[in-house]
């Protein structure tokens, strides 16, 4: 008898699986389709559908034109890209360095240091954070979006645990060959941990890309607002113009504007994801069963 | 002039900021300060004389109507108000504006003001947090808009500790030095008084409160939206609801507000013959309205998705027949979607066809904008700025603030009404919203594209005023109410929504009421009753 996993599944079972999985897939695809469709919908489509649109019958790019016409959105994208790239790079450098240092048993005073780092798991609260950022002179600077977030305790723990599993013999042999700590980290530990570094990097990048609350609190100059703050204002504030302020050209309906912002905010991260997905699965699985 | 929809929505929101201002004081002024609030001499009221509206307004609250923008706008301010730059924290309820550096409309305003007006623009939600952090970090701008309904706690002690008392510059005839501020009504000024002192210029919105509006094309099938009794309205709703179309939007609390008016529930508090107060929730009238709403819900006339954010498109296309809007001027929201549609406004009626209904007027302002503590010269400069930004509808300053510069941000249409140009639609909305929320003149009715709407709204307002009731506590101050009021209201509302939607029995009402009373409701009553002005009539 063949083992059970080599049996061909019954067609009925296959069909059930297809329906269930198809259902899940639709549950994910339809909301995204609604977002994209509504962003492309004309005013008439929105009235006909009574709000959000499943398929625009008179597609138009008006919402996107409006969005990018003021110059605010283009700048916001640059800000978000800068914060995400620079933030992720710095965050990875800091986290890797710290995780490596604390993963080696030789470090002096390690338990105390670990206790200190443990406190980082708890959020400090809005006002203490604000005071720190203010005293560092970071208010109204893009660094206020980057520096407070460069060390995520969770990411640190994940990386450190991974580094501790790198066999000590490897490191010893490297040391015998005359490698210093930097060389070991760069040539041995990091190449072995590519998957988990990619995952942590993605966590950081998504975090920086999505951050809006810090921007609300620390930035007074609207020209420094990242995409997410603009997104929020568009999604949460309804009407663009009041009744007594007519324009020569009416603005698109708020629903299509809102969804256009959602698309703009989604696209960059959605584009990066497929390239990192490979590492993502590997990074998570290696934690469980190492082959 | 501002998008009040969002603003009024937040009035029901729970407190977000918690006690983040605790560092500013212990809230110790309590009712002593509240008592003083009742005794202050308000600024002298002197309406702006330079303009005559097409439809007259009245001090009762009736808004003046303008069929077109006044030709040859007059100036209401003699000289540019500023010599030095001013910083201000405000909030935008529209799409964010391009920053000052790339916003010619903003730059033109600065030029007209005489110096830079640097706005820090907050958003909603998040405003109370922004407010709290600036306060705690001692990084106060010159001006900070203080909303009355976003749950900013400890207002009395905070104002005393950090902001400027403006009483001697504004009380009585002193205000006449700033004619546009003198044109703000006493009812508006009452909302800028805390602890018996004036802390800023009030920001009038509209004196009217929520109304129910319906698509006349939908309601034509059942003889129109206007009804004479709750039973008739129920029957009409039932006829209009068929499983795909529904009579009412699912905003339960707002709908209950409307039903309460038909059942004679008071506006916030009832003033009894012995001058004691009874809260809305304690009245049998409101309880009856809750039971009526539950009956409507059981009959499936409410649109079933409680999370529906904006019913307007559905009202326009007929999926929903009626919704609650911020006030009688909101007809324009529907015109914006469908220019051929002028929605009907329901005039409240007695629930049994006989009793006199009530129409609840609104709070009237969106709070006030206090000044950071400073010297007299600076205070006068900032007051002059307030005066400029409060310039009445139809003045030069109003045009500058709301429409910018002719030929750049706006042009005149065939009827000589200002119309934003393409550049104007980019530069104006977020900026105008941010300016309007921190300073406004008294409101007017103005629908440039549909002057007839202005006439009809003016008519509707007069109908509504026949049943008008003001919240007797509006403009007075209770420390308990500003501390725990929003939280108590939110908790009570959760229960009544459960009751209406059938998740709880009506018995839960009494339990929730008990919690409301012991949680601070009784204390609020005492504090409000202690400062109830003698001018407030028995209801």
From TrEMBL, chain A:
Task: Keywords in alphabetical order, please.
Answer: Cell membrane, Membrane, Transmembrane, Transmembrane helix, Transport
Q: How does it sit in the membrane?
A: Multi-pass membrane protein
Q: Which domain of life is it from?
A: Bacteria
Please name the GO terms of the biological process aspect recorded for this protein, alphabetically: transmembrane transport
Q: Where is the ABC transmembrane type-1 domain positioned along the sequence?
A: 77-276
Q: Where in the cell is it found?
A: Cell membrane
Gene Ontology cellular component annotations, sorted alphabetically: plasma membrane
Any Pfam family: BPD_transp_1
Q: Which residues cross the membrane?
A: 12-36, 76-100, 112-133, 145-163, 195-219, 257-276
- What SUPFAM superfamilies does its record include? MetI-like
Q: Which protein family is named in the record?
A: Belongs to the binding-protein-dependent transport system permease family.
This one is known as ABC-type glycerol-3-phosphate transport system permease component
Q: Which organism is it from?
A: Kribbella sandramycini
TrEMBL record, chain B:
Q: What is the species listed in this Swiss-Prot or TrEMBL entry?
A: Kribbella sandramycini
Q: Which domain of life is it from?
A: Bacteria
Q: Which family does the similarity line name?
A: Belongs to the bacterial solute-binding protein 1 family.
Fetch the InterPro entries from UniProt.
Answer: Bact_solute-bd_prot1, TAT_signal
Name the UniProt record assigns to this protein? Extracellular solute-binding protein
PANTHER family found in the cross-reference section: ARABINOSE-BINDING PROTEIN-RELATED, SN-GLYCEROL-3-PHOSPHATE-BINDING PERIPLASMIC PROTEIN UGPB
């Amino acid at each position: 008898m063949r083992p059970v996993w080599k049996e061909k599944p019954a067609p009925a079972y296959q069909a059930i699986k297809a329906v269930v999985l198809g259902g899940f897939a639709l549950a994910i695809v339809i909301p995204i389709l609604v977002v994209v469709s509504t962003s492309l919908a004309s005013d008439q489509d929105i009235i006909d559908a009574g709000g959000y649109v499943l398929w625009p019958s008179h597609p138009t790019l008006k919402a996107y034109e409006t969005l990018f016409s003021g110059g605010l959105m283009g700048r916001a994208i640059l800000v978000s890209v800068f914060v995400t790239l620079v933030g992720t790079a710095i965050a990875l450098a800091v986290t890797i360095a710290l995780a490596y240092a604390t993963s080696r048993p030789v470090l002096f005073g390690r338990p105390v240091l670990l206790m200190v780092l443990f406190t980082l798991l708890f959020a400090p609260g809005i006002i203490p954070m604000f005071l720190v950022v203010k005293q560092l002179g970071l208010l109204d600077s893009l660094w206020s979006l980057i520096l407070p977030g460069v060390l995520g305790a969770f990411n640190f723990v994940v990386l450190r645990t991974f580094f501790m599993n790198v066999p000590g013999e490897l490191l010893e042999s490297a040391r015998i060959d005359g490698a210093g700590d930097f060389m070991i980290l760069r040539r041995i530990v990091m190449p072995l941990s590519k998957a988990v570094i990619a995952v942590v990097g993605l966590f950081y990048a998504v975090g920086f890309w999505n951050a809006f609350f810090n921007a609300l609190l620390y930035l007074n100059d609207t020209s420094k607002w990242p995409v997410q703050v603009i997104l929020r204002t568009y999604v949460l504030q309804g009407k663009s113009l009041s009744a007594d302020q007519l324009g020569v050209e009416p603005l698109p309906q708020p629903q299509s504007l809102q969804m256009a912002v959602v698309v703009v905010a989604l696209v960059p991260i959605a584009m990066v994801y497929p390239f990192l997905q490979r590492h993502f699965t590997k990074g998570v699985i290696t934690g469980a069963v190492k082959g | 002039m501002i998008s009040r929809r969002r603003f009024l929505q937040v009035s029901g929101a729970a407190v977000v900021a918690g006690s983040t201002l605790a560092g500013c004081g212990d809230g110790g002024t309590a009712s002593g300060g509240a008592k003083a609030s009742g005794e202050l001499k308000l600024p002298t009221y002197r309406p702006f004389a330079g303009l005559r509206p097409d439809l007259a307004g009245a001090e009762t609250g009736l808004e003046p109507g303008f069929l077109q923008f006044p030709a040859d706008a007059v100036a209401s301010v003699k000289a540019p108000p500023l010599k030095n730059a001013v910083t201000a924290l405000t909030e935008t309820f529209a799409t964010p504006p391009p920053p000052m550096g790339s916003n010619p409309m903003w730059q033109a305003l600065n030029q007209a003001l005489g110096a830079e007006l640097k706005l820090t623009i907050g958003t909603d939600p998040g405003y109370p947090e922004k407010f709290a952090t600036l306060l705690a970090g001692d990084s106060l701008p010159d001006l900070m808009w203080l909303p009355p309904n976003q749950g900013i706690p400890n207002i009395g002690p905070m104002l005393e500790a950090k902001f400027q008392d403006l009483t001697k510059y504004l009380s009585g005839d002193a205000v006449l030095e700033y004619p546009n501020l003198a044109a703000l009504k006493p009812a508006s000024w009452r909302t800028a008084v805390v602890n018996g002192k004036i802390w800023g210029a009030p920001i009038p919105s509209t004196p009217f409160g929520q109304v129910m509006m319906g698509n006349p094309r939908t309601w034509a099938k059942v003889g129109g939206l206007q009804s004479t009794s709750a039973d008739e309205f129920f029957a009409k709703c039932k006829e209009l609801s068929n499983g795909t179309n529904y009579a009412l939007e699912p905003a339960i609390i707002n709908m209950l507000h409307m039903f309460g008016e038909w059942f004679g529930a008071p506006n916030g508090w009832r003033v009894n013959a012995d001058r004691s107060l009874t809260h809305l929730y304690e009245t049998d009238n409101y309880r009856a309205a809750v039971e009526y709403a539950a009956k409507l819900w059981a009959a499936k006339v409410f649109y079933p998705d409680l999370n529906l954010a904006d019913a307007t498109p559905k009202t326009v296309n007929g999926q929903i027949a009626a919704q609650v809007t911020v006030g009688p001027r909101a007809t324009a929201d529907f015109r914006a979607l469908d220019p051929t549609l002028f929605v009907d406004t329901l005039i409240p009626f007695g629930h049994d066809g006989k009793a006199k209904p009530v129409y609840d007027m609104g709070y009237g302002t969106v709070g006030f904008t206090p000044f950071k503590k400073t010297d007299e010269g600076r205070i006068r400069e900032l007051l002059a700025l307030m005066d400029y930004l409060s310039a009445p509808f139809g003045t030069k300053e109003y045009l500058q603030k709301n429409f910018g510069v002719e030929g750049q941000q706006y042009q005149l249409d065939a009827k000589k009404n200002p119309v934003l140009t393409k550049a104007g639609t980019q530069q104006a909305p977020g900026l105008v919203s941010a300016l309007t929320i921190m300073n406004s003149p008294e409101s007017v009715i103005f629908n440039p594209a549909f002057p007839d709407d202005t006439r009809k709204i003016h008519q509707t307002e007069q109908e509504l005023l026949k049943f008008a009731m003001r919240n007797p506590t509006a403009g007075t101050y209770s420390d308990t109410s500003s501390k725990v009021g929003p939280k108590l209201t939110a908790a009570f509302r959760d229960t009544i929504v459960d009751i209406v939607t059938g998740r709880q029995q009506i018995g839960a009402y009494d339990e929730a009421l008990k919690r409301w009373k012991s949680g601070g409701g009784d204390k609020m009553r005492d504090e409000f009753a202690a400062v109830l002005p003698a001018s407030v009539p028995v209801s």
